[in-house]
Amino acid sequence: MRTPLNNPFQPGSDVVPAVWAGRVNQIADWRDVLRPRLLSGLFERGRTILGEPGLGKSSLVRRIADDAASRGDWVTPQIRIALGSDPIARLAGALLALAEEAGLPTSREARISGLIDRVQAISAGAAGVSAGITLRGGSREEPHVALTQLLVEIGRVAIARNNVVLVHLDEVQNIDDDNALSQVLIALGDAITRAVTVTVPGLGNIERSLPIAVYLTGLPEFDDASDTRKGATFSRRFKVVLLQPLTDDDLRSALSVFVAPGWEVTLDDGERGAVHMDPAAVECIIRACQGEPFLFQLAGERAWYADTSSVISESDVERGWNDAMAEARAHVERILSRLPAREREFLRAMAELPPTERTFSKIATTMGHEKEANAGPTSQRLDRVRGIISRGKPYTFRHRALEALLTSDWPEL
Length: 413
Ligand SMILES: Nc1ncnc2c1ncn2[C@@H]1O[C@H](COP(=O)(O)OP(=O)(O)O)[C@@H](O)[C@H]1O
Ligand SMILES: [Mg+2]
Description:
alpha/beta, Helicase, Ruva Protein, domain 3, six-stranded parallel β-sheet, three-stranded mixed β-sheet, 14% strand, binds magnesium ion
């Protein structure tokens, strides 16, 4: 009954996983706040979603984008910024596709076709895009000008159609060129703060914001980009959300459908059937994955493959996890080894102490004298920028998989 073809767990892919857990607040923020406010012409900041690798930043925004598309909104694909690539050209290309959806290229207005030509030049990545494009007549123009103008035109059509425009830039920490970063953020920020005048029957002319939702996703390092790089207005234009691991309750409710009524599958002969999960198997997956979305998918995938019967048992999860342990460990070790040495040392020192003794001074002492001086800023960063620890009394780990790796024999169950 369980086959590779009907396995709903998908570790590591960029598609929205079929077995979805949590992120209730972020989805409600989109559905109940951001989208309705934008549709009514109210200003709403862009959203910057940051977090350690594998926490589900990209999946979350793709899920929101899928929801948007199903309501008739215009969404960009995940514009994934590779190191060294030109984010301005990528954004320009995505905006041209949105303009196409909005029907702008068929406009007979010279102003619009001229604008599209300018953005096409940017998207073609003509040498040194960030330095600007040459306009007819020979003068230079910074790329953000045309990008904002095009977004404004797309937004105007969206107002008439009563839908939202959603732009998603992923891996924003990879924008390493200062000028490119400020061009991109100004282009997007100017569009979302732009007020346009529309005529409402019975009310006359009113000013409103454009229905443009901007989502930026990436690693917490994005926060390191100084305000001069991001522009002084960045924090007024974007709201930063630091993503946390999933809670055990999130995972339990995600898996509850497997307990009853069962996960519906199609069998080889085209018949329908249901795969169930023993409640003990659910708890075992929860213990294995420690709130990590990636490990959740991995544990589920392996448990599915451990047998072919219609019920996933606790021993299926255990056997599956045995095969997955090396990969699970490597995943969390990668998160740890990516951190700067002093942050890693802080976490190691914290992990060495019994949970009740994890106070700042004890951790700093454990780190040894020459490192104590840095412990303050380091702990602050681990809390505020990365969300890996919480500086309460005592200090606790928020990243549960890192805690499990450092303080127990996890991934052993
Ligand atoms: N809310 C979620 N529920 C279940 N699985 C998730 C969730 N979010 C992400 N995942 C899974 O976790 C893995 C990593 O997600 P991804 O979005 O690529 O992380 P990030 O972009 O933060 O590095 C993927 O396999 C994805 O399917
Ligand atoms: Mg990602």
